[in-house]
Write a structure and sequence with these properties.
Layout: H1 3-34, H2 55-72, H3 90-93, H4 112-132, H5 138-161, E1 185-188, E2 192-195, E3 211-214, E4 218-221, H6 227-233, H7 250-259, E5 262-263, H8 267-276, H9 278-281, E6 288-294, E7 322-325, E8 342-344, E9 353-354, E10 358-359
Parallel strand pairs: 6-9
Antiparallel strand pairs: 1-4, 2-3, 5-10, 6-7, 7-8
């Protein structure tokens, strides 16, 4: 088989895998929402929050984003004016860049049936575009997939905030189990590290270009801090066994570490540990882990097609977000890799987040 045939076969395999993943993830998305109480489906009766969205808006936005980037986006038409949406009100209602957060509770929307039909039609349009793609737009289909992954985790965060159970309809998805904490430390001699370096076919723009830094020798906990230890620090008398502490702010995590003569790891230290020790990496993915690194772009950063994903939240642009690493039980496996950079403001605690400490 010659090089051209091999390349064509690789593209066909990738497209087939992407098609299956896009279909499955849309089924998973709909399953997450299927058992919501009826009051949640009306934007004006859904509890307002600065960190959530009304479910009907959220679902429609997922469909809109997929259609926007996989079908309509072009380098010379980043606003997607040349190719119209399948839903004539979509640009006005579901573009997160243009729709102020508060107005998502106030706008009038099409019926639930129309929005669900839009989700189905949008997916079909994306799959048709994928079938016709020669491989040059693969990264856009991958972007659409991971965007839906992230919104699925956000929905699980909403369910927790509203004290609603995980949906019974998720019979094909393993329900999350809170992990156990353990003791011990990992020690590393440190050396040069190329932050963001990986052979992955898809990377977020904030992971590039790979950035060389020097990591000094350090040691890091073999486990996230336990809930029992964190409660004891807060003066709470509880019998919580050996589960890990979750849902604390960066400020609380840093204060706890300081109180025991330790500190939070830097992003570079965390990524170094994950890249140099399979044993360490095996302990991650239970909860997002706060680091003590402020979110910013690497030198030479260039925004990707989804230009609003990273750059507006860089410290150089006047915001303060802290980097979290590792993923949680609610994170899709394809986002659990050492270079992935999650980022939240240090006062947030609604995420499935925990932390581990380093020696000073």
């Amino acid at each position: 088989m010659d090089t051209t045939q091999c390349k064509a076969q690789d593209i066909a395999h990738e497209k087939s895998a992407l098609r299956r993943a896009l279909i499955f993830q849309r089924q998973y998305t709909l399953a997450l929402y299927r058992d919501l109480p009826s009051a949640c489906w009306q934007a004006n009766t859904f509890p307002f929050s600065e960190v959530t969205n009304p479910p009907l808006w959220e679902l429609s936005h997922i469909a809109y984003f997929a259609e926007f980037f996989a079908v309509r986006w072009r380098a010379d038409d980043v606003a997607c004016r040349e190719v119209a949406s399948l839903l004539d009100v979509a640009d006005r209602l579901f573009n997160s860049n243009d729709v102020p957060h508060r107005s998502r509770w106030l706008n009038e929307y099409p019926s639930n049936a129309v929005c669900i039909a839009y989700m189905e039609a949008s997916l079909m349009r994306v799959l048709d575009a994928l079938d016709a793609d020669d491989g040059s737009r693969r990264h856009l289909f991958q972007l659409v997939l991971v965007h839906e992954d992230m919104h699925n985790e956000a929905m699980l965060m909403v369910l927790r905030q509203l004290e609603l159970p995980m949906p019974d309809s998720l019979h094909t998805i393993a329900k999350p189990q809170y992990p156990r904490a353990s003791s011990g430390i990992f020690k590393f001699d440190g050396e040069r590290l190329l932050l963001g370096a990986s052979e992955r076919s898809f990377k977020f723009d904030n992971e590039s270009p790979a950035y060389e830094t020097m990591v000094a020798p350090f040691e890091i906990d073999a486990s996230l801090v336990s809930l029992a230890a964190f409660n004891q620090w807060r003066g709470i008398d509880s019998n919580d066994g050996d589960g890990i502490a979750m849902h604390m702010t960066h400020t609380e995590a840093a204060a706890y570490a300081e109180s025991i003569g330790r500190r939070l790891p830097t992003e570079a230290e965390w990524e170094f540990a994950a890249m140099h020790s399979t044993d360490f990496f095996a302990t991650t993915g239970q909860a997002w882990e706060w680091t003590d690194t402020i979110f910013d772009g690497y030198p030479g950063f260039v925004a990707g097609p989804y230009a609003e994903y990273s750059a507006p939240w860089f410290s150089r642009n006047g915001t303060t977000h802290m980097v979290l690493k590792g993923g949680s039980f609610a994170t899709h496996q394809r986002l659990k890799y050492p270079q992935y950079r999650n980022f939240y403001t240090p006062n947030r605690s609604d995420m499935f987040c925990g932390f581990r400490t380093c020696g000073k």
